[in-house]
Amino acid sequence: MRSPGISLILVAGISVSASATSYREDAQSSVAATPTSDRTIDGWVRDIQVVRIGERITSKITFELEAPGPQEPPTLTFLAPGGSIDGVAMRIAGAPQFSIDEHARVTVRQTSSGLRLAGLANGKVVLP
Fold this sequence. Notes:
By secondary structure, this protein is α+β, with helices and mostly antiparallel strands. Helix content is 20%, strand content 42%.
């Protein structure tokens, strides 16, 4: 039989862990990000092109920024995993799907091959 004291300690440990995770996610989604970190932007999906890169299927998302800064272009293109091309579909568990004219907040990361969606499902939030 378990003692109630052990259960309380276990619950408290889980609670502290969840709080730490939430705080960490908020810290990563800062709009004032440096060029090598994640960057969160709001806008609309304007185009989706699906391409094969080796054996992988990837979507190139053209995203119109809601409020571009003075030195920013009005649109950005980033890669997101998955898509459907030539009758073949590739879906990644946890990866969001995009729709034309969808209003969303996305988090992107600069990589050696360009901008990529960061965080899979955590990298996209649909906005009203």
